[in-house]
Amino acid sequence: GAVVSQHPSRVICKSGTSVKIECRSLDFQATTMFWYRQFPKQSLMLMATSNEGSKATYEQGVEKDKFLINHASLTLSTLTVTSAHPEDSSFYICSARPGGGPYEQYFGPGTRLTVT
Amino acid sequence: GNSVTQMEGPVTLSEEAFLTINCTYTATGYPSLFWYVQYPGEGLQLLLKATKADDKGSNKGFEATYRKETTSFHLEKGSVQVSDSAVYFCALANTGNQFYFGTGTSLTVIP
Lengths: 116, 111
Known about the structure:
The complex is a heterodimer of chains A (116) and B (111).
Chain A: E1 4-7, E2 10-13, E3 19-25, E4 30-38, E5 44-51, E6 57-58, E7 67-73, E8 76-81, E9 90-98, E10 106-107, E11 111-115
Parallel strand pairs in A: 2-11
Antiparallel strand pairs in A: 1-3, 3-8, 4-5, 4-9, 5-6, 7-8, 9-10, 9-11
Chain B: E1 3-6, E2 11-14, E3 19-21, E4 23-26, E5 32-38, E6 44-50, E7 56-59, E8 62-65, E9 75-77, E10 86-93, E11 99-101, E12 105-110
């Protein structure tokens, strides 16, 4: 149980285009989902926290107009990287927290974004 | 504030060697503590956790004990295998359910 999927697993896009990454909780309802970014050989950096049906809360330094997050349902959150640039290339990981479960977060397998 | 400090890697061990990866934390309140493992090209997998002081988390031969007096949660394994090669992250979660991760420790086990 407690499986989180991400799609796509890898994506290559051209500079200036937008890319959407999906995060789904497959066997539980996630009241809260989190988006992280991981640079090579570094730790995870929390980008934003999203609660179903409300606006995402972005961490300091994260451009909300560039990284659009939509938590449309209790099982789906999307991250859209708008007008992507090569410096946006990174590994993006989502996690989901079941409703009512303290401190539990289940992580997706990650999406490798490469902007050329 | 909340933060996690992990020993820097990379760590290289021979198969069947003893492993310790140090982790210390600072936190307000009473956090839960976690170890996650990340295999190449994959996301994070929960390895073990402890939710209160003196709890011991264990899984797949790995252990870590929540030490409030030393604010530590060191990861140990008595005999590592090649398949344990991965990056290990120590993390804490506090009342806001936000996770704070250490920088990760890369482990390579050689036959």
